[in-house]
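New to this. Help decode the following:
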Amino acid sequence: MRGATGGVQRKVQDVFPNAHYVHCYAHQFNLVMQQATSHIPQINHFFSDMGDLLLFFTKSSKRTAVFDEMVAHRLPSASSTRWNFNSRAVNTVYEHKDDLVRCFQTIRNGETFDGPTKREAGGYVRMLEDEAFCFFLALFHKIMPHVDILYNQLQKRNIDSVYIAGIIQTFIDHMQAIRKAVPNLVEDEEYKGPVQEPPTKKRRTLGEDTQHRLALEVCDTIMSHAKERFSFTKHLVSATLLKGDLFQQHRTKFPHSALEDTVEAYPSLDKVRLKTELSEENEEFKSCSGALALYQVLMENNLQDTLTETVSLLNILITTPMTTSESERCFSTLNRIKTFLRNTMAQDWLNALAMLSIEKKLTRDIPDFNTRVIEKFANQKDRRAKFLYK
């Protein structure tokens, strides 16, 4: 779809030149984290080891039985494309690390397990007690909650470029705060792993200087990739006109370059009139946090005929799709509904089941929905099974 020469965006732009393509920002955030973590070899190895640890218990029912007995929590799966899965994995391993160590030690010392399983369990014990692994686990335990929050926000239906610019800046500010707190994290004894007896053979471990450097590099890489990926293209630079406290920042310096780029991308807008409208001062406008909120205020006060260019600009901002997660979930729903055993399902039946699954929130709000459906189904004709009980 993204093909600039033969994809869907090219075919649409051949007919509508001003129909600008926007890549899903939820997908772009996955690319930010994937590129940021793969850029540093030590971090790449950390997440690779984390994924192997999570898969260890899924390969055998005997391992799962020991895990369920000693760890009262299920291990989530890891994913290289959906970083909210990695967030759950990091938080779970961090919170249940001691239980996991005891679980692996039980498997290693158990008589019912074979040699390869014991050796693998022993390797995971050493990994969970490794100083570098404990440090990276603590570091990403601080980073991942902000990743998870941003990932969920980028999948909302009613988001626009103004909203995305705000939450991305908040995310970068949080990363900057974590970066400033790195020296305290390096010096904290809690994150250095358990104190062990000195080994007979000298083993190479990360020093505090290396930990400090890698932690700073992680934060800097995530912030730089986020700024690069989430820098709005020319046709969305108009979001800067509405960012923050609306109109108030323009009293000292109006963003002329953003206005020029906006009018160039959308020739239907009147530059002089748009600048005049955006220069107006109104306390109610200043309280609006985004394009959709401002648009609702203008509609409620019947100002669409007065601020025509502003309304046109808002229409562009709030109708430009920022995410494709919702539509992709619809295809995932179809995969769950039309399985191999239901391959002969008719189109009307498929449409009805898909609508029920996709809009399940609406069906839950209907009083006695399941009971009414059963009654209607039972009353259509005589059936061998009794669905109605009186």
